[in-house]
Amino acid sequence: MSDEIQKADQIAFHFYTKLFYAVHDARATEGPRPQAKVDKWFNLDTPDCDLFTREAREPFRSISLASPTGPPPLEIEVLLAIPELASDQVLVYAPPDAPRVKVDPARGFILLETWTLSLQLYRGGRAAPDAGVDVALPTIYKHGIVLFRSLYSLLRVLPAWK
């Protein structure tokens, strides 16, 4: 495997891990462990997290060796845990300018957000419909810096922020 392909795999892998760490950092109710490592990719410090296990990260490690359809999409669901309610309590959703709606607490969780990252592979041989020229890896990394800084800000202005 060429050095260029290894670097491309590494950048792609860190797109997946950085998305997970950024979402987890913005949505987790517990703070990071005191001894947690810090992921500094894309010039954005995010605490490392054990929830994204080695096994879960493995499909994204060597994207160049993935099947022709590419790696599976990474889907992150942000869930709100519903505590056990007393018999005289009910859970309601109060949308603005509408009456309250009763929520069934039997499921135990409410889905707040879903974040999906999928990658469409381009394998050289035939041109993709929107393929222009090849983009240099440093340019992709620099675009990733802007992307993750924007994502970091967006995660903190959406309603599910902490």
From TrEMBL:
Family per record: Belongs to the ATG13 family. Fungi subfamily.
Keywords from the UniProt entry: Autophagy
UniProt GO BP: mitophagy; piecemeal microautophagy of the nucleus; protein localization to phagophore assembly site
Species whose genome carries this gene: Hypholoma sublateritium (strain FD-334 SS-4)
Gene Ontology annotations for the cellular component aspect, listed alphabetically: Atg1/ULK1 kinase complex; cytosol; phagophore assembly site
Tree of life domain: Eukaryota
Residue ranges occupied by any Autophagy-related protein 13 N-terminal domain in the UniProt entry: 14-162
The protein's name in its UniProt record: Autophagy-related protein 13
InterPro entries, per the entry: ATG13, Atg13_N, HORMA_dom_sf
Higher taxonomy: Eukaryota, Fungi, Dikarya, Basidiomycota, Agaricomycotina
